[in-house]
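User: Just a sanity check before I run the rest of the batch. Below are the structure tokens for the first item. I only need the designed sequence back.
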């Protein structure tokens, strides 16, 4: 009996603690705590009944029936916990895999309904506005229901895509699970616009389905003053709760819609975007093939158009002789574990130039300019899905060999669509090398919010005037040369800064021994030994 009293006091203390913090607190863990306490109360009542111990009245309360307005919240993996007639389960929502992502496309499912998964397993591939990213799990479970099959396009952020459970025996219960049961109930407002003067049937319909109307006191009072039926108002608060602003918005929309009542439905249908009709084949025209845009290409096209129209571009070009750079590359490759390309050396030179001229290693943030200390170098890569610029982080602190290893790794991942978000989102400076395509000059578009991007041409043999032999019979020499064009955002970088950066870049490319000052590991030791 004494033990029962001690435990009972502990249970009652827990209950009162929850009461004091507020039973209507809006956070997801509240319902779980209520369930736990209700079960503890049940055990306490059972033990107390057998021991003839009187319990306080608060212990007879069922916290499972207590009102709460806790919203459905998602965790970092896009999972939403649901409490319904179904067995214990979680609804996986479309995760946010990119800072600019608003919707995604399910390109491939790796698991089928009934398949189990472990932490680290990829459930499906999601095509975002940046790249195709795997939806990786962080816990054990079983895939019970796929709500968005392969090929589902433009799935909104945080929309339900699948249901997972802990036990394989619960999978059968979700065979007829519908996506409407997982999605928040918001889609009934448009249908109610058709109803004109039938306020009473609406509350009856709600009572029949067992739904509970959530209305704030201020909204209820405001609606009563203006004689508005709350059944016609769409709530935008937590769990569809009707706020005062919702009632005001309904009144405003009703006033605007009154003159155009006869044709109320047609404008709604006209808002739906319709795909352009195919051009009729005319005699003499060549055959053509319409290629559907992927989500990545469509968003990339929008961003490039926006960048070109809103960013004030200007360009600075510089010619660099690379004979010494090519000699250095040849010597480094004899001792390096990884093959070093000329682009790896250019990445190093550009990173060191950014450290020397930090105003170019900056970003436009709308109301301020952000200047970065280190250089996260984005390297433009052409993939089957389009152009992407994965990141070589802290390129200014790495040796050329490490840059070569990192660049090779991210290029392979990019072409295989296996880049993680942190490997292509961000960056402080971009380099795009089109030399392998035989381009004599490349003028690139700035990648916002970055301030600069460097376009690199092919290496060409040029006949140049030799100033030291100007008075001889052969006052010329043959040199290898490339052209670098720096595209700049004039809001961040002006002409003087761009000229200073290109001057520093040219100095490092034409005198690669200067890069030893910040090189490390094998490159620095090797260059010291051969006295370059």
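Assistant: Here's the designed sequence for the first item:
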């Amino acid at each position: 009996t004494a033990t029962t009293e001690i435990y009972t006091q502990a249970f009652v203390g827990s209950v009162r603690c929850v009461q004091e913090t507020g039973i209507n607190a809006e956070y997801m863990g509240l319902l779980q705590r209520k369930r736990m306490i209700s079960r503890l109360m049940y055990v306490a009542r059972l033990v107390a009944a057998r021991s003839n111990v009187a319990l306080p009245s608060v212990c007879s309360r069922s916290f499972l029936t207590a009102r709460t307005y806790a919203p459905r919240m998602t965790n970092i993996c896009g999972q939403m916990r649901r409490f319904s007639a179904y067995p214990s389960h979680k609804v996986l929502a479309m995760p946010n895999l990119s800072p600019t992502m608003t919707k995604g496309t399910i390109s491939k499912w790796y698991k089928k309904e009934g398949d189990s998964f472990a932490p680290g397993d990829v459930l499906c591939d999601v095509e975002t506005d940046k790249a195709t990213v795997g939806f990786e799990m962080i816990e054990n479970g079983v895939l019970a229901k796929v709500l968005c099959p392969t090929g589902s396009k433009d799935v909104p952020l945080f929309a339900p895509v699948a249901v997972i459970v802990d036990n394989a025996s619960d999978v059968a219960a979700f065979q007829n699970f519908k996506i409407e049961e997982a999605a928040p109930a918001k889609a009934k407002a448009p249908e109610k616009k058709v109803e004109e003067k039938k306020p009473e049937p609406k509350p009856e319909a709600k009572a029949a389905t067992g739904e509970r109307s959530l209305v704030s006191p201020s909204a209820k009072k405001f609606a009563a003053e203006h004689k508005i039926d709350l059944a016609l108002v769409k709530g935008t608060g937590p769990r569809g709760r009707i706020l005062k602003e919702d009632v005001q918005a309904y009144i405003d929309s009703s006033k605007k819609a009154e003159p155009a009542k006869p044709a109320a439905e047609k404008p709604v249908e006209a808002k739906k975007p319709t795909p352009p009709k195919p051009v009729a084949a005319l005699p003499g025209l060549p055959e053509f093939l319409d290629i559907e845009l992927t989500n990545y290409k469509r968003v990339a096209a929008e961003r490039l158009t926006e960048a070109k129209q809103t960013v004030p571009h200007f360009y600075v070009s510089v010619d660099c002789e690379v004979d010494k750079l090519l000699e250095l590359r040849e010597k480094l490759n004899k001792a390096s574990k990884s093959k070093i390309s000329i682009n790896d050396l250019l990445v190093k030179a550009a990173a060191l130039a950014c450290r020397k001229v930090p105003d170019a290693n900056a970003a436009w943030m709308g109301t301020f300019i952000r200047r970065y200390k280190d250089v996260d170098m984005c390297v433009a890569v052409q993939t089957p899905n389009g152009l992407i610029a994965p990141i070589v982080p802290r390129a200014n602190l790495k040796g050329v060999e490490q840059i070569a290893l990192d660049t090779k790794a991210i290029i392979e991942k990019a072409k295989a669509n296996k880049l993680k978000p942190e490997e292509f989102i961000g960056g402080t400076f971009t380099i795009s090398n089109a030399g392998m395509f035989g381009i004599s000059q490349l003028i690139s578009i700035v990648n916002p919010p970055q301030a600069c991007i460097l376009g690199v041409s092919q290496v060409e043999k040029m006949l140049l005037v030799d100033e030291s032999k100007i008075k001889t019979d052969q006052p010329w020499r043959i040199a290898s040369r490339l052209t670098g064009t720096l595209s700049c955002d004039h809001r961040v970088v002006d002409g003087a800064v761009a000229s200073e950066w290109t001057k520093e870049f040219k100095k490092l490319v034409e005198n690669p021994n200067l890069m030893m000052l910040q090189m490390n590991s094998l490159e620095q030791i090797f260059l010291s030994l051969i006295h370059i």
